[in-house]
Every structure is written in C-alpha cells, then in structure tokens.
Amino acid sequence: TEIYTLSLHDALPISGCQGTIGDTPDEESMPPIELSEECDPSVAPDAELLRIDRRAYESALRSLFGDESMTAITSSVTGVPNTQSGQYRSEVEVPSFDVIQSYVDVASSMAFYLTDDPTRLSTISECLTTISEPLSAPDEACLSTFIDDFGLRLTRRPLSAEDHTRFVEAYEIGSVDGAPTGVATLLMSMLLDPRFLYHFEVDGEERDGVIALTSYEVAARLARVLWKSIPDDALLDAAAEGFEGPSGEGRLRAQIDRMWSTPAAREGFRGFIQEWIALRHEGPATDALLEFATSMVYEREGTLAELFLDRTAFIEDAELARVYELSADTRGEVQLDEEHRAGLLTRAGWLATSAIEDTNAGHIIHRGKALSELLCVPIPLPDDDVFPDDDPADPTEGLRTIRQRFTDVTSEQPCSSCHVRLDALGAPFGHFDFEGAYIEDERITMDEEEHTLSIDSSSSVNVGDDALVDVESAIDISVAAAQSEGVAACLGAELTENMMGRDVAPSDACLIQAAQNLLSPTRSTSVREALFAIVTSPSFSVRSIPEAQ
C-alpha cells in the first residue's frame, strides 16, 4: 500500500486530465480539420497529455527487462486493458481503478520476479545482486548509479534531484525487510512513476510564443512514433549531445535513419498500415496485404502512386493463391493479373467482406464505407432506427443485383443522401466476390435455381478532390486515387495523426503540408521521405502553450 501511494500520488490527479493540457473544447464539439488548412509556421501543434498505449507499454517493458522476464509475467501483462480511443491514438481516457490496478500488478510481478533470484536481477544490474543492509559506501554508489541510469531509460530524460531522492526513499521503505525487498520496492516505484506511464512534454523553454521540446522530449517522440516504445541508449546519448543547430540536425537525421533501419520501425509502420486501411479480417489475405504495403514503403521506398497501383504480391497460402487465380503451390513474390489487380484496393485483404447468403457478390456498401474513410471523405451514417429490418444485400424476388437491391431500398430520404455516395464508391468493386476473387457476373440462387446477372461497376466518384471522376472498375478508381492531390493530403493527415497520437487539428497544418508536398502526384517522392518530413519538420519539435498549466 505504501509503494502504491508513493508512486501514483501524482498519477491519480494527472489521470483526471482529459484532452489537451489546459482548457480546450470537448472533442465532440470540435469541427474536423479541413485538409486545405494553410500552414502557419508560428502556430505550434496542440499540446495533449497522452498515456502510453498498451503496445508501447509492452515494448518498453521488453526493452528494459528482456524476453525471459516478459514471458514470466505474461499473465499480468495480458491483464492490462487496451483502452485506446480512436485510430492511432495513444491512451488519453481517464484510467479506471482496474487499469491502474493492472499497472500495479505488472510492476509488482516484474519487481518480485527479478529480485527472487540474483541471476535474474543481474540482467538489469550486477551490483544490485550483492548489496545488503546496512548499505556500504559501494552499495550506496551502486544504488545511486542504477537509479540514475535506469531512471533515464524509463522516464526518457535525466532524473531531477527530487526524482532521485524519491526513488531512494522508495528503496528505503522496502529495505526494512532487507535489501532484496528494498530493490523490489524501488522497481515498483519506478514502473508506476507517471513519467513512465505518461508522455510528459513540460521541460522545454518558451521561444517565440511556442514551447520548444527538449532533445530528450524529441527523442521520446521519435521512439513513440517510429518504434512504439521508449528510446534506447544510442538515442538517449544523441539527445544528450542535443538536436539543435546544424550539427544537432545532422545528429537527429542520423538517428532517424538508424531507427528506421530496425525491425521495430518496420513493425511500427506495418501497424500504421493496418489502422490506416482499417482491415476488418485476420488471416493470410490480410497478412499478404500488410506485407505488400510495408515492403513497398519500407524496403522499396515506394510512392503513394505505387501503393495504389503496384501489382507485387506475397503469397504464402493455397487459398489466397486460388483467390488470385494462381496455382495452389504458388509461394513468395508474384505479379498479379494486370487486367483486374493493382495496389491496395484490389487486394483480397481489403476487399473481403462477410458472405451474403444465396449470392457470390461482395458487400459493395461495406466497401464504399471503407473507401470513404481511407480517402478522408467520410460519410456519416444515420441513427440505427432508420435501417431496414432486412439487409438489402440479401437477394429478393425480382432478380436484382446487389447494387440494384440497395438502390431500391435507399432511393428515398433519410437513406438516399448517404447511399448515393456509398453506392458510388462501392460499385467499382462489384466484380469481386466476398473473398476478393474476381467474378464476371453476379450469381444468385433462388428457389434452388441459379441465375446469372450482369454487373454494372461504372460510377462517378470523389476521391478526395472537388471534381467527380468517371470510373468503370476498381483499377480506374485506384488510378484516380494515385493521381489525387486530395489523397496525398489525406495520407499526410493520417501520417500526422499517427505521429501525434491524437486527432489532427488545424494547428497540425504544417506537419500535414510537409508530408503532402512530397506525396503529391506531381512528384515521385517516397512515402518514407514524407514520413521523415514530418519528424524532421520544425513543427514536430514544438508544442503550443496551453492557456492554463
């Protein structure tokens, strides 16, 4: 109980903070950002207090304590709920008592697992295994050095004198029952420290009306957005030298290049792709799509156009090979059929929908909704009470295609205003069944008889720009997306949202523009460089000054 009070006495008031640091409107009352918002270099991105999300939390623990220790406390770690709210967002909701208790469980499990065996404790400090009460001068030096070194990794910044004293006191609380208990109490205190569980950015100085992040805060941001973790020793060493001035900027770019070359960065970008595309199913088709997109950006330094148009695929499953009309034994990298396949939007992982009874059609409305979100042209749905009792996707008397069935049911208000756009976006994908396999016709079984109906996949769509584009197929809509400035702005906003861990706001316009300028179809710059443009932008290293601190 004492260590719980010691370590969370600051966290509990902090947990009451919602949204940005200071007074801001509630999220629901804030209008969505206009992607055409002008960049004003004097405006810094909004400050927001973020709690470490579960994936980053687990990654941080693994980097600090190793795989063996994480395996030993698996049951405690899996008990930490993922309360992330919204796409890409770090956890900003007020933690419940159960969430706080789960952190306590992990901290106590890890602390007592390590201190129960000197061999385990030696993985984080050799000298801590030999200290005893009362502490000798070498023991005190060992304890002090460990607190400073481990505290730097844990809190992502050098400890203050007050922090150091607080952690020494934590050891002293437990050491009345011996040095091992003192070390366990110290570890619990450190793992429950708010500076570990929250992303604090409060140490920088005010400059020209904004708060300039310290080099340690920039390093922590980089680790959060590129690794979903905490800085390693090399990044912290670079932060200690500083990221300001020409030499500092070179040091920062060198660290970004190094971080990007690690498996952690590849896995982090794979996670971004999965959330951006909003994949709805798990399995080989989804894995293949994620591998295509990740490989295109990570290894091949592909452009936005290549994400929408390249036909490279990675096949490791006989069923997926069948969907793509390849031989069952096809494995590895292949080129898909150029007549029906292009990039992201023609892959089985994105096209897959739930099966519709008595028809081979895929659910074009679900695809239209998914595409609207992918292209940043969301279509709000009405309240649940306006939906028909029967799904219009289901075949009915009259032998109508799925597109015609939806038109019949949704031709009048309140459905028509939404469905005109949903139908338009989903129709070009009508030639793909619920698994994502190409089909020439829609087949409907009615009264035990199969009927064949022609598919109309023509449409006029908005792919992020003001003008409508006439398309005949999924490849046409992929080409339109690849050539759209609006889609470039959209991906810039999505990358920015992922970087900031919160919904984008007008104050993020410079970050979005930095990425959009490179993603523009008028240039052939890689998505990787667009991402780097965000993290090297001056706006990435500053934050706004809250109205109240």
Which structural category do the helix and sheet elements fall into? mainly alpha
Residue stretches low in confidence (pLDDT < 50, at least 5 long) are 1-32
Order of the strands making up the biggest sheet = 3-4-11
Q: Can you give the helix content as a percent range?
A: 40-55%
Radius of gyration, taken over Cα atoms and rounded to an integer in Å: 27 Å
The portion of residues forming beta strands comes to 5-15%
Number of strands: 11
Mean pLDDT, as a whole number? 88
What is the global morphology?
elongated
- Sheet having the most strands: 3 strands, antiparallel
Amino-to-carboxy terminus distance = 30 Å
Number of helices: 26
Tell me about this structure.
With 549 residues, this protein is mainly alpha-helical. Helices cover 49% and strands 7% of the residues. It has 26 helices and 11 strands. Strands 3-4-11 form a 3-stranded antiparallel β-sheet, with no helix packed on it. It has a two-stranded antiparallel sheet with strand order 1-2. A hairpin with a 7-residue loop joins strand 9 and strand 10. Mean pLDDT is 88; it is low at 1-32.
Quick overview:
The chain has 549 residues and is mostly helical. The protein has helices at residues 2-8, 11-15, 54-65, 67-72, 74-77, 97-115, 118-121, 137-155, 161-175, 179-191, 194-197, 215-227, 233-241, 245-260, 263-277, 284-298, 304-309, 318-323, 348-351, 364-374, 402-409, 416-426, 474-482, 485-500, 509-519, 527-535; strands at 50-51, 198-199, 205-207, 210-212, 312-315, 332-335, 441-446, 449-454, 459-461, 469-471, 542-543.
